[in-house]
């Protein structure tokens, strides 16, 4: 069992920067769907959304690399086996949801056979030949995966709040 009390500063930074970025990208994604062609953000908003999405992919990759070398603290003694398994399942679903969103976002951005510009600094190349209705199919998956991800995030937050206010343990404090 690990004797570490809290998550490391790096793990906490990765967690909260990822969380804020995910919430921002979700909010911007929902907002972009309301813009008409003549809105001044009609073109820049999707470009920023894609650029920050690519940065989130890089952040998540870095987070996995960091996690490989920096083990998290062990579960608290009051955590039940089912809670630990459920926490692992929810985290796995969160990462699976992010993967689906990343792949579908990539397919939307490369649907015309062009790469995805990231803040006009570099391009993520289009590596596959576009297929029929790629943008529509990937867009449908991207949108629904984002909504489902937010539901799973809600479960994650509810679990943290349960530990804080019902169990009155240090689970949430370890990530603050």
Write the layout of secondary structure elements.
Elements: H1 9-32, H2 44-69, H3 81-109, E1 116-118, E2 122-124, H4 134-166
Antiparallel strand pairs: 1-2
Helix pairs in contact: 1-2, 2-3, 3-4
Textual characterization of the structure:
With 176 residues, the protein is mainly alpha-helical. The protein is 64% helix and 3% strand. The chain has a two-stranded antiparallel ribbon with strand order 1-2. The mean pLDDT is 95.
Number of helices: 4
End-to-end C-alpha gap: 21 Å
Rounded Rg: 19 Å
Whole-number count of domains: 1
Instruction: Give the class from helix and strand content and strand pairing.
Output: mainly alpha
Strand content: under 5%
Element-by-element helix/strand order? HHHEEH
For the biggest sheet, the summary is: 2 strands, antiparallel
Helix residue percentage: 55-70%
Shape: elongated
Mean pLDDT: 95
Across the major sheet, the strand order is: 1-2
Name the poorly predicted regions.
none
Number of strands: 2
Structural key phrases:
176 residues, mainly alpha, two-stranded antiparallel sheet, 4 helices, 64% helix
